[in-house]
Amino acid sequence: MLRLLKNLKPKEWLYAVLSLGFIVLQVWLELLLPDYMQKITALAISNAGMAEIWKNGGIMLACALGSALGAVIVGYFTARIAAALSYRLRGQLFEKVESFSMEEINKFSTASLITRTSNDVTQVQMLISMGLQVVIKAPIMAVWAIVKISGKSWQWSVATAAAVIAMVLMMLFILVIVFPKFKKVQKQTDNLNAVTRENLSGVRVVRAYNAEGYQEKKFEKANDDLTNTQLFTSRSMAIVSPFMTILMSGLSLAIYWIGAYLVGGVPDGPGRAEMFSQMAAYSGYAMMVVSAFMMLAMIFIILPRAMVSVRRINEVLSTEAQIKGGTVTQSPKEGGQGNVVFKNVSFKYPDASEYVLENVSFTAKQGETVAFIGSTGSGKSTLINLVPRFYDATEGEILIDGVNVKDYTLDALHDKIGYVPQRAVMFSGTIKDNVTYGEKKGLEYSEEGVKRAVAIAQGQEFVENMEGQYDAHIAQGGTNVSGGQKQRLAIARAVYRRPEIYIFDDSFSALDYKTDKVLRSALKQQTGDATSLIVAQRIGTIRDADCIVVLDEGKVVGKGTHKELMESCEVYREIAYSQLSKEELENE
Q1: Among the residues of 338-470, which ranges form H helices?
Q2: Keyword Metal-binding, does the record have it (predicted)?
Q3: What pTM, to 2 d.p., does this model score?
Q4: At the N or C end, where does the chain have fewer CB atoms within 10 A?
């Protein structure tokens, strides 16, 4: 928690100090109330004039109003502090997640990261806004009230001590029994979010396979687990309020019962009046002691879940990104731009025992197209994902323009690359927003550039037929356009950046053969000075590449042009003949 509080700025610390001052003032005014109650009681018993009673009653009312005003001011300050802290925490969490590689994101899971950024931060905000008032006020009030009542009567002190001990035991019960369950609640909330998110993102498949019942059962299990745990914690916490009420009522009864006994033992006169007025004051102080512990009990209701949230937030903030940028901001001037070299590269996923790629070497020179083909799971996508450093090579090195990719700053490295993933990702906004998405040093917005990129990607016809054309709305995830249209817009996004290196991760799979061929031809003509790395399943997509790398179980089993591989590589021939006949291959 102390680590999170370091995010407070001097202004918030000033608010905290002012809150402390107003809390002390508030407690002082509240502790004056029993004193004036004692005076008013003594005046009433002694048949003093009403003027004196009204005077003390007026002062008592002023103290109560002053205490209420202090509470309002403290509430304002603590709300500002809590809101500022949660604002910064959400920003830090988002920024931290943005810096994570795929390894860290997979470690936490997307659903968990969303919960930590939203729900967990809200728990901390609640703790600060309520806890800052109660945690400071309760000890001050308890100690001050105990000092006030000390020496009054040992019988009353014993009754008050018994009530305090009972409350402490109850809070220990909450800490020991309920606290672990709150940690479970957060994990089950993650699971519920994951199931819900999976169902919504895969809703088409769910409906196509009539799997609504299966998904409902899956959701019901996650929902039941969370509900049962929350019922346990809620039921455990539900005993707090009635227990406190019984305790306060019992303590009041004990004080008056003991007081009646003590008053009865004093002869009529000023002594009995004094004892009676002391009983009234002691009752007020005792209630304040109990109220202080009640406030602490409220914190114990909020604290367990909030502390779990604090730990989860700190887990994210303390996790160091494994992939960090270097210091090189630009390539050497000599030797051209966009040259990619793999030198004996091997890779295995974190905590995996087997290598996904083994001893891969190839060179892609500026303006060349290097394609990768192989069976499913052969490591094609993994290989090209090493270039933008979504993962880092386990062994060997990857060079761009003679510089190891690990030595570039991440911004400089990504400025060189136009990346088109397997699954085209669209963001809510317009077509123009999606094509110009991201930042690149030296790249300024150009409407002509947008139209050029869309035209090269063979999307001009469908874009200009949409309402609003380049300002047409795109829904989140691109749900209002087809798969092929999304892929063409994703390709246009890469083209717009004018990168030195294009990475196409099976990015032509949703296109028909004609569009595929025309698009690749346009890319070659318009972006011929850039290097292209293409992963594809179709022979027709890669047969004109300058070099084709054939992968099988993570190893390079063939490398060369289409013609050379047809003669020398059995794996490539099998793939080619599985897609096209011998006559078609010869005719092409």
Answers
A1: 380-385, 410-415, 431-435, 447-456, 460-464
A2: no
A3: 0.69
A4: C
Compute the half-sphere exposure of residue 3: CA atoms within 13 Å on the CB side of its CA: 12
Of 228, 231, 233, 223, give the one whose Cα is nearest residue 302: 233
User: Tokens representing 462?
Assistant: 């469908």
Same domain? 221 vs 118: yes
Domain end residue (candidates: 318, 338, 366):
318
Q: What is the structure's pLDDT at 522? A: 83
So what's the pLDDT on residue 112? 78
Q: Are residues 201 and 258 in the same domain?
A: yes
Residue 416: Cβ within 10 Å count: 24
Q: Taking phi first (over 0 means left), then psi (-120 to 50 degrees means alpha), and beta for anything else, what does residue 227 get?
A: alpha
Tell me the DSSP string of 333-344. STT-S--EEEEE
For residue 31, the SS3 value is: helix
> How far apart are the C-alpha atoms of 192 and 489, rounded to whole Å?
33
Amino acid at 305: R
Residues of the chain with pLDDT under 70: 1-2, 38, 42-49, 150-153, 262-278, 280, 297, 300-301, 333-336, 580-588
Q: Provide the token pair at 364.
A: 């892609």
Note whether residue 455 is domain-resident.
no
CB-based contact 169:162 (threshold 8 Å)? no
Residues 297 and 371: their CA atoms lie apart, in Å, by 66
Q: How do residues 530-557 score in pLDDT, each as one tens digit?
A: 888 888 887 877 878 888 888 888 888 8
